Amino acid sequence: MDKKDHIIGWLGMVLSLEPGRLTETFYLDKEKQIFFSIHFADYAMFTEDLEIDPAVSTGYSQESEQAILDWFRRLDNNDSSIVRVPQRGITDRTLGEIEANEFIRQHNVDLETAFIWEFAQEVSVKVDLTAKTEGHNKVSKKWWQFWK
User: Fold this and answer.
1) Where are the domains of the chain?
2) What pLDDT score does 12 carry?
């Protein structure tokens, strides 16, 4: 499979996902010509100030953590060069390919330089809820309030 087919296949897979699915969100970094995804667990890697949380360990390399942090910061700043790839629930393969090609055209994706950010292994994010920072318990909320 060549690179163009790989990208169109990836976009087709994203477009086939049901709208509102929250476990993973897909994006295009138009500035760097990178397609990437953010998993819901990735949000636990960072503090409210968008710094890497020392109480969290991941299977990501430092380079990958920094890339994700950069994307989080840019998303937080509403960077217009980061575009969400929509999940539309398209089940027809031909229609998915047409939509993928339209997305590529609409966002001026250069298929010669663009690529999909992928990691080679299964990645985990572990949060140490007992970590203490400067003598204070880092976690001051109930476990079910993790999103606050």
Assistant:
1) 3-145
2) 95
